[in-house]
Amino acid sequence: MSYQVGLDLGSAGTKIATEWGVTTTRRRCRDAPAAEIAQLLDDLAALHGEPPSRVAMTHSVSWPHEYLEQLRQDLIDAGRADVLFVPAPHAAAIAFDADVRMPEHSTVAVFDFGATGADITLLRKQGVFLLAGRPERVDIGGFDLDDLVVEHVVAKLGARSPALVQSCVEAKELLGSCPEVRIPVVSDEVREVRLSRLEFEAIIRPSVELAVEALDRVVRSAGLCVPDVILLVGGSSRIPLVVKEISERLRIPVLLAPDGASATGAFLEARQLEPEPVGEPEVWVPAPREEAEPKRRIPTTPFIAVGLLVLVLGGGWAAHEAMNQPEVETTSVELAPPGTAVLPHF
Fold first, then answer.
1. d(CA 228, CA 247)
2. Which end of the chain lies in a sparser environment, N or C, as judged by fewer CB atoms within 10 Å?
3. Which Pfam families is this protein grouped with (predicted)?
């Protein structure tokens, strides 16, 4: 059973895309991505009974060439020399194009607002996706927004604890769909802190505006290559304020990519590069010719030969006699026309 795998190593977790769907695992080897990839592939081999036939993983366009080469060498040392590298924005665009079938020469701006930063890339479809502008990265991500919420709540309470920090992170994620969240505080007495969406948006607005300004610069750097759509990728891009700020500033349609879109795009690339199975060659064997049934020959016996000779001689004699008979004159006899019958009168 041959299968392919797409990997997206995010800061918060790793997305694994196969033909059976997308799953998320926690990062286990943050400082050793090659070891983590090898462990993930070993887990897949144990689950499916064999290793994947093709593996593709995403990477940030901001990663330097030296880092990619070192990662490739680490993968080779770990026995994974066949891992394909796919830029993360290209992978997201490939997954998006597989769903909507973008017209040729159309342009998409990928706004990847993840845990550690915002990567903005403009891509144009010309058979494949090519860079249409200068990519830009803003080092403001979901972790920074978490810190802003934590500092805001801690300033209200005057206390800080690991449990409170975790509650603030969960509250930030809930405010994407809830107008207000109550954060429990466990101390000498049980209390709670209310955090509304309006309050949350006021806290994070300056950071969000910095990321949106970078998107605006990337779009303007492309000149006439204005994007037809802005594709939002990453957990922080699901915050309603992000969608609102982009729509109001750029006046370009905004679409939110499904969770795990980059991993799905990497999987599609891996599947596309999988060689077609070579089947056994088909040999056409013509059907045997049916021999015509030979004509039955009448055996020639002495008696039959004598009979044939008699017929031939007899036919020749009859023809000779017919030719030697005297000619007979033929005369025509003229008959009188029939009379007219007269009926008697009474």
1. 13
2. C
3. HSP70
* Contact present, 243 and 256 (Cβ < 8 Å): yes
pLDDT at 143 over 80: yes
- Say how far apart CA 291 and CA 230 lie, in whole Å: 74
| Six-digit token string for 165 | 């920090």
Model confidence at 213, pLDDT cuts 50, 70, 90, reads very high
Backbone angles phi, psi at 83, to 5 degrees: -80, 125
Question: Residue 106 — φ and ψ, nearest 5°?
Answer: -80, 165
- Write out pLDDT tens, residues 255-275: 999 999 999 999 999 998 876
Total domains, the chain: 2
| DSSP H or E run through 196 | strand 190-196
Establish if 334 belongs to a structural domain.
no
Q: Which of 97, 108, 102 is nearest to 226 (CA)?
A: 108
Q: Residue holding tokens 């200068």?
A: 134
| DSSP, residue by residue, 122-160 | EEEEESEEEE-S--EEES--HHHHHHHHHHHHHHHHS--
Last residue of some domain: 201, 223, 245? 201
Instruction: Note whether 172 and 257 are same-domain residues.
Output: no
Q: Quick one: tokens of 155?
A: 């300033």
pLDDT digits (tens, 9 = 90+) for 27-69: 766 678 898 899 999 999 999 999 999 999 999 998 899 999 9
8-state DSSP, 239: S
> Looking at the chain, how many residues does it have?
346
pLDDT of residue 333: 41
Alpha carbon 168 to chain centroid distance? 38
Task: For residues 196 and 322, give the distance between their C-alpha atoms in angstroms, rounded to a whole number.
Answer: 134
118 and 173 together in one domain: no
pLDDT: which is higher, 326 or 70: 70
Tokens 């590069």 belong to residue: 273
